[in-house]
Structure formats: structure tokens, C-alpha cells
Write the C-alpha cells for this entry.
Amino acid sequence: MKRRTFLSFLAYSAIYSHLIGKQANIFFDSDRAKALSDAGNLLLALQKQKKNVISLVLQGRRFKRDVDHHYPHPKGVHDETSGYRVFFHGHRNGEYGHFHTFKYHPKGYTHLLMISLNKSGMPIMISTLNQWVTDDVHMDEQEMIEACTQFSMNPDLFPDKRSYYFLSYIIKGFEREIVTLIKERTIALHSYFDINGKNPDTDENLEILSSFHINPSDLGV
């Protein structure tokens, strides 16, 4: 191949790759925007019915703020097909309650994300936790990213399907932030080890490893 032709080919390839990458980002941003919009629309629709995501999981029961009291069932919702598990409870300051999401694999359950809500049922924060909090097993960073981005459960397992759709929209809509969150989790674990010379898994002074806050405007609410 002549030098001029070769250089032209490289230039074209670079432009093509840039356009493909840009197109991929457009699709990604479009999916993100739709998921966040769907979450916001769901929350607004519930408000009109004088309901919220919390009332969907309580199903008319009185909310008990207790670390061992789980909703919508004592053991939460477990999808044996996909391996994901979810439950809601409340016991932390600065929030009304939170969803825990888990993924089952050959080693056991691994906690993925904690999604915190205020009293109105609005999502306010997403966090990753240290292992002692939910007594789970470690999952590598890439495995955890895949488990979060592939989150999927059978909606029929929930007393009200909308509580599942809410979680699905939030995790999909904030996928970019969640990937960053998991990477920050890895950094936090490594930093703890470097400073203290021991694994952080059982240190009850270390609970939240990484987190980011959600504004209602992110959902158009």
C-alpha cells in the first residue's frame, strides 16, 4: 500500500472509529435518559395516587424501622432464575429506608448496591457497603460491574411490579455512576489495607465504601 493511501486509510479509520464511538455514546445517553425519565414518571404517577415506592413494598403494613425487619417479605424477594435478591428496610440516620440488592453466585450472596430513600419515597443516594454489613462474600470489581449492569428480576415476584420497575430504572439510569462507584469501592478497600495492613471486611467502623447523591431533578421530578 502506498504511503499516501495508507495514511488516508488511517485517517478514515480514525474518523470512522470516532463516529462509531460517538454513536455508541448517543445510544448510551439515550438509554440513560429514557431510564431516568421512566423512573421520574413512575414516581409522579404514584404521587398522583397518593402512594410511593415505600408504600408499594409495605402493602398496607406499618413500617417498623428495624435492621432485622425486611419488606416486602421477611427474606425479601429472591429470583432463583436470575440469582438476584432484593429487600427493603430502615434503620439508618439521614434516610427513611433503603433497598439492598444482591447477586447469588457459586460462592454465595454478594451485596451490590444500597439505594436510599427519603420519607416521600424519593431516591436520595446509592452506595456500596463493606462485607460485614450484610455478611456477604467478596466479588471482584469486574464481576460486580457486570452483576449491577445486568440486574434483572421477574417483576411478578414483587407484590407490586412497580417497585421492581423503579429499581430497574434507577440502576439502568445511573449505570455510569454505578460503574464509577464500584471502582471507588475497590480503591477504598485497597487504601484501607495499605494504611492498616489488614483486610477491612470485619471493621465495623467502615460501613459505606463509596456513594453518590441523587437529586430529584435528575429524574425530572
